Prior knowledge:
Blueprint: H1 2-67, H2 74-79, E1 98-103, E2 111-115, E3 126-132, E4 138-143, E5 146-148, E6 154-155, E7 167-169
Parallel strand pairs: 2-7
Antiparallel strand pairs: 1-2, 1-3, 3-6, 4-5
Amino acid sequence: MVKAISSERTRRGYALLLAIIGVALLTVMLTMAIPLWQTEIKRDMEEEIFFRARQYVNAIEAFQKKHAAYPRSLNELYEEKLLRKLYSEPLSPSGRWDLVLQVLPEGGEGYMVVPEEAAGRYLPTSIIVGVCPTTDDVAFRIYRKKKRYNEWAFYVGDSPNEEMPEIRFVGRE
């Protein structure tokens, strides 16, 4: 009888030990998987930046064709029903985009990126032609030879195969 009790305790002890080892292995494996999941999520967010930015560019092009003018704000694109919704910038905690403005010939030439709330000051001498992410993280993808998200400008007439033109960044901290 003593031997039977001892054998049962030993089996329970091994079962408990195996359960502890199993939980420890599972914890280690999950800990190793977290960075992979985070990387995959960030890559998905990069794709989402492209999708949402293209929605704005397409809406600006449609607005220009419809009105022979450019919008005064992103909200105007939504009000004209050229966007299903105002898309937030997926990697930015605030969700806001900076605006890409094309400087009109009388004001100089080229492109500038300004925060949306400061755009009104530049609109007399420029037009809204696109959006730019505000997140300054280093991207996985290099887009038009730019490595940071906030250097990626999406605008009417851009070409993904060409190098990003010289763009002035105004009003960023």
